[in-house]
Amino acid sequence: MSKRIEGPRWGWIVLTAWGLFAILPIIYFASIALRPRNEIIAPVPIYFPTLTTETWTKIWAEWPIGLYFYNSIVAISGSVFICLVLGVPAAYALARYKFKGNADIGNYILSTKMMAPAAVVVPMFFLFGKLKLIDSVWALMLMYAAMNLSIVVWIVRSYMIDIHPEIEDAARTDGASDLRILWEIIIPMCLPGIITAAVIAAIFAMNEYLFTLIIASKNAYPLSVALANFSGGSDGIIYNAIALVGFLAFFPALLLVIRAVLAKYPDHIGSAVKG
Question: 157 lies in which domain range?
């Protein structure tokens, strides 16, 4: 009995220690963001830096960081929403309906992520130009959604294939339609997979640089492209500003990953805490 209790407890302790070790670079990155510039470029390492809000004041005074942050939130969250609205029903259709080539459809879907960006960026630029969406957040939203829809469909479809069709057959016997089965049975059962797909789509959108740089200009820049602006000028490369904006761009992704882990393994984490 004691071994059963100590196992999860020791596992939780090791997991917590590893998590604290992994988060140390993030804390160091945040400390750089709050240091004066002269301490960052000092030839001798400073282990107990002076923390100041000088970087915050400088960024908000010289760059439209609020606009960049707003563009990132709107473009990324909107693209994830579009991917889920279109991807979940598509994944259900591909997982349940039988047609020619159904067995290999997953490979076809995933192959769209392997296309060279240079082969797609020019057609997308002309397409958004025809739609008069160049230099707008809506163009970023649609571009992110188009780029990440295939990976969302592939991940969610993989989860739906593992659900036994007998559950749906029982619901159809009671008169449930396919839409009701999808909404009330399938989606709750594969919610961890949907959250995982959403997190991956959001991270891919955050990391996108080439398409964003070509389609958007300064008024529609997200944080990922805005980082390139913190170089040059009278101060040269502003390391603490880069660290601060990078931390702001990374922190939502960290929260999404934590949320996905908690949603996927609620029983394991709960038993580890209790044990």
Answer: 64-229
